[in-house]
Amino acid sequence: MPQHTRILSCMLLVCLFFLIGGTDSAFSAYPSQEFKQGWRDFHRLLDNPRKAKYRSHWYAVKDHFQRAYTQSPKGSYAPKSLFYLGRVYDEMSKISMLKSDALKAVDYYTRVVLRFPDHSWADDALFRRAQVEMNQLKDKDQAYLSLLSIVHKYPKGDMAPKAKKMLEKLDKTNRKTVRASSSKSASKSALSSAPSTSRTPAKKTVSRSSHASPKPGTQTAAHLVRVRHWSSKDYTRVVLDLDEQTGFYNHLLKPDSSLKTPHRLFVDLKNTGVGREIATEQHVADGILRSIRVGRHSKEDARVVLDIDSIDNFRVFSLSNPFRVVIDVYGDKTGGTKPSPADTRSASTSNTTIVSQNAQSKSVARSLVEQLGLKIKTIMVDPGHGGKDPGAVANKIREKDINLKMAKILGKKLEKKGFKVLYTRTTDVFVPLEERTAMANARDADLFISVHCNACPDKRAHGLELYYLNLAKSRDAVRVAARENAVSVKKISDLQVILTDLMLNSKITESRDLAKDIHTKSLNKVRTKYKVNDHGVKGAPFYVLMGSKMPAVLAELGYITNAAEAKRLRSTAYLDRLAEGMVQGVLAYQRRIEGLAGL
Length: 599
Known about the structure:
This protein is 47% helix and 19% strand. By secondary structure, it is of the alpha+beta class.
């Protein structure tokens, strides 16, 4: 056969292959074709219950979406392919009732949100994920978190109305549980609104609490009954106490040189009256806040205006039981002091210079430690609970009593090591959570240590654990945070969504390091004589730690619900040994921090 004939025959065979058996293979090179074929097969399978029973059919559909994504993981069909991979496992889980299928569906929906957060299907993926979590996995708390993410991240998306509707349904279902949890202690506070943070004039922000505002037409359903504030040279906290929950929004106005006005941060309280005892103006002049003015914005709304001389950042959020709005304003974080060029040059001199001028170098190191905010001189010790709030009660022990006793023992030992010790309370009095952190910030404390005792329905639970402010990543951490905050697990899930904003000014890494040092030294000290379980160091959203400008930790000394450990916590000798370990942990952290300046 002539060569040209053989070439022509081969070409005809190739064409025949593509026309008859090779069509799918040819199209497989195109993600769009794979996705479209998968989409058609998916919906055909949905309409055919008989075939839908068999996993092999679903796997065949899955393969199309898998190839579409693999061939172009950053292409226009990638997010859609991931979404439909989630849908495949979503539908499979409804038939198989297998948890593994549901978890894979959640995983693929999550990938859409993480890898393509700005895609128009991202909120659809979140909504589908919430449905799987609620219906297949029976995890209402996680579903609540997913729905809340839609409301916060995609308020203008087409899934937002559906998410709000489901949230209202969940809120209604859990209302009894929330009330029961909240009534345990009047001192514990449920964060009920998303915070507003800004380094520039902020746009109007409406809190979640606005959903609970009185109906239009009603007048002054809530009343502003008190305005409190705590200040230092670079921090101010203002708390607006109300007698009822209401909606609010805030806005920051730039200074106006022509009018000679400073920054003005106003907070409007919806359907709120002003108590007669409230001063229309309070002069503060603390270096940040010039004054606080209170008046009416309209017939229904009250307005609080903060005249601010210096501002670097601010945030506004609300707490419940009782309802109050918290305003944190931050000035220059360094307090206007920075290492001088001379100090910088001295700190970076050669090794021979350091050897010959050792004393001078140590002096420079100490100076840098103070100027960079690394010094540890003042420690605020916070005995949890107090007064009308007993904390956990079990085995004839009130948590508030153990906390206060331990705080005083710890404080005396810290003083002997040269630290200045401050207390949020030294007697059996009630101190609101927001006041504890504000006291530490206003007094320029370098560390904040909150002392608590744990409790658990399982009376066998016992041991020591340390916490720092962060997202709760374990069921136990969520449980402890819910107990200490006196809210439901659902509310902790709510809080996790907005916690990132609340932690902007918190020293998370430093707090974790402090918690690790205290935990290790304490455990080593008590284990020389006692058998104590190690529950580790964990992050969790504790209200009492929020807003702290310094490294802050919460120590759970032990479980008063465990009979043996309750007896141990009543022992002064045990508390003394535990306090000694905590002091060693603080000293270890101090050496770690001050060592940084000597490097």
